């Protein structure tokens, strides 16, 4: 990856709103606006608007698009109907994760992939090598705008923007909508654990949609949100971050996401036999969820985890949960792992801090 | 940014108030803004000896844990107990109730630290 940093097409909006910009995966993006915790709470209680223009938007089109994707993706693209989307993985030969992504079927010969910023170029280059008369791939970095409108008030706010009578898509579905005079794609997906939408628009219309949504959402409590709140919201929802909870060295099954790996279909994909074996016999390492205690230092990425005095693995993602007031973490540990409710320790600055194994959807723990 | 005239500053964004036999240390208004909401603080225990420039405490926001360096050397005499239940004092009142710890300095010298004007200027770069 080059060191050049690209400006988000929404950067002028962020500067006007007082966003604090930081470089992330080759992009200058807002890490926060009014404050991480305030933005986090707004998204849980009302709504938040996130710039996701850094995420790669790749279109796969042609009569051979489906067959090509079937040979690359761990979740079976042939299961999708028109207008439907699902979570999936590009895997390597060892079953590790080259990227995690959302795949939408817009039509029988038209697919839309939303991939991670850090992997966008690598993924697009890889797909382009499969190009031929039957399938073509488009969607270079910086060619489109993406934003996520998330929270219990998201549907109410978006309903004010779409032309009257336009139905909003159902969960995990995508549809076209005329937004600010131009065609955009609206998917009912997100990365916060809340109801919400991801909106994909062209470079010219995107900033208008962003500005209009902030205006329409203000009376509902909508706040612009940065990468900081995006990370704390996704972890509370138990959602993985590529590069931490997933990587070339961590398989989806080890990450506890085997549900999204479909080994019951004829066509092979990279690492299939390894993943099939891990699903059948259990992986050697597995991801568990941990909750810390109020008043104790929070778990962080890379901290070692101990069970009955022995090191069993490491925290892959961890932070103090703004909603719960204690630390939460995902940890990749040796299998068999400690069971729900058992106590482990993680090491912070040379001392051991207790944590309890819990459910991965942290907000659902009683 | 607020930069009180009676304090000395470290490049790593700590402030120190030097009094007779006592130095009080905290983080600057700029530092608390950069960190955003502080949710956890690890402070040194009284009796611990520290050299100037050593890591002596940790301040954590949701996003990250940040090391705090001792601006002057000496022996820790007191940690701010109020921060355990209300770490947000650091954000709301960084130069007074949000202080971190006190120490008995080895020396009264502060030549290695920045004046308020020098510190303000360093933030403009």
Query: What is the CATH architecture annotation of chain B?
Result: Beta Barrel
Radius of gyration of chain B: 13 Å
Our estimate of the beta-strand percent of chain B is 35-45%
Q: What percent of residues of chain A adopt helix (DSSP H or I)?
A: 10-25%
Helix and strand composition category of chain B: alpha+beta
Protein described:
The complex is a heterodimer of chains A (366) and B (125). Chain A is an alpha+beta fold. Among the domains of chain A are: 141 residues, Probable tRNA modification gtpase trme, domain 1 (Gyrase A, domain 2); 81 residues, Elongation Factor Tu (Ef-tu), domain 3 (Beta Barrel), CATH 2.40.30. Helices cover 19% and strands 34% of the residues of chain A. In chain A, the strands form 4 sheets. Chain A has a 6-stranded mixed sheet. Chain A has a 6-stranded antiparallel beta barrel with strand order 15-18-17-16-19-20. In chain A, strands 6-7-8-5-9 form a 5-stranded antiparallel sheet. Chain A is globular and about 60 Å long. Chain B has one domain: OB fold (Dihydrolipoamide Acetyltransferase, E2P). In chain B, strands 1-2-3-9-8-5 form a 6-stranded antiparallel sheet. In chain B, strands 4-6-7 form a 3-stranded antiparallel sheet. By secondary structure, chain B is α+β, with helices and mostly antiparallel strands. The model of chain B has no long low-confidence stretch (mean pLDDT 96). The radius of gyration of chain B is 13 Å and the shape is globular. In chain B, strand 1 and strand 2 form a beta hairpin. The two termini of chain B are 14 Å apart. Helices cover 19% and strands 35% of the residues of chain B. Chains A and B meet through helix 2 and helix 7 of A and strand 4 and strand 6 of B.
């Amino acid at each position: 990856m080059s060191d050049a940093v690209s400006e988000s097409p929404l950067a002028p909006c962020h500067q006007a709103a007082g966003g604090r910009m930081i470089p992330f995966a080759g992009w200058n993006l807002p890490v926060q606006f009014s404050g991480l915790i305030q933005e986090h709470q707004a998204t849980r209680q009302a709504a938040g608007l996130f710039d996701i223009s850094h995420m790669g938007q790749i279109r796969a089109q042609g009569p051979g698009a489906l067959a090509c994707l079937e040979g690359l993706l761990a979740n079976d693209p042939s299961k999708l109907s028109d207008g439907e989307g699902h979570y999936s993985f590009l895997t390597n030969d060892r079953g590790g994760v080259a990227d995690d992504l959302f795949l939408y079927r817009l039509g029988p010969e038209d697919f839309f992939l939303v991939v991670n910023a850090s992997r966008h170029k690598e993924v697009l280059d890889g797909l382009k090598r499969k190009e031929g008369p039957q399938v073509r791939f488009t969607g270079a970095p910086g060619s489109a705008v993406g934003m996520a409108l998330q929270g219990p008030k998201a549907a109410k706010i978006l309903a004010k923007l779409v032309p009257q009578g336009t139905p909003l898509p159902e969960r995990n579905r995508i549809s076209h909508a005329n937004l600010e005079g131009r065609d955009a794609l609206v998917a009912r997906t997100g990365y916060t654990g809340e109801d919400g939408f991801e909106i994909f628009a062209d470079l010219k219309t995107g900033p208008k949609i962003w500005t209009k949504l902030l205006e329409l959402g203000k009376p509902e409590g909508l706040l612009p949100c940065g990468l900081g709140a995006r990370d704390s919201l996704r972890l509370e929802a138990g959602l993985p971050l590529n590069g931490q909870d997933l990587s070339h060295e961590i398989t989806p099954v080890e990450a506890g996401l085997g549900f999204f790996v479909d080994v019951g279909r004829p066509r092979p994909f990279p690492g299939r036999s390894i993943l099939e074996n891990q699903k059948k016999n259990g992986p050697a390492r597995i991801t568990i969820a941990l909750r810390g205690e109020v008043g104790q230092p929070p778990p962080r990425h890379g901290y070692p985890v101990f069970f009955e005095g022995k090191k069993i693995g490491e925290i892959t993602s961890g932070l103090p949960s703004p909603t719960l007031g204690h630390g939460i973490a995902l940890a990749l540990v040796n299998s068999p792992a400690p069971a729900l409710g058992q106590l482990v320790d993680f090491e912070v600055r040379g001392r051991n801090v207790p944590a309890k194994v819990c459910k991965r959807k942290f907000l659902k723990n009683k | 940014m607020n930069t009180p005239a009676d304090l000395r500053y470290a490049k790593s964004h700590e402030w120190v108030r030097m009094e007779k036999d006592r130095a009080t240390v905290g983080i600057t208004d700029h530092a608390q803004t950069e960190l955003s909401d502080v949710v956890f603080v690890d402070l040194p225990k009284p009796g611990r000896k520290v050299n100037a420039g050593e890591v002596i405490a940790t301040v954590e926001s949701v996003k990250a844990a940040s090391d705090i360096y001792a601006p002057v050397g000496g022996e820790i005499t007191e940690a701010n107990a109020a921060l355990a239940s209300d770490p947000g004092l650091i954000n709301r009142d960084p130069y007074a109730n949000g202080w971190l710890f006190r120490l008995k300095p080895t020396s009264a010298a502060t030549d290695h630290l920045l004046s308020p004007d020098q510190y303000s200027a360093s933030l403009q770069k």
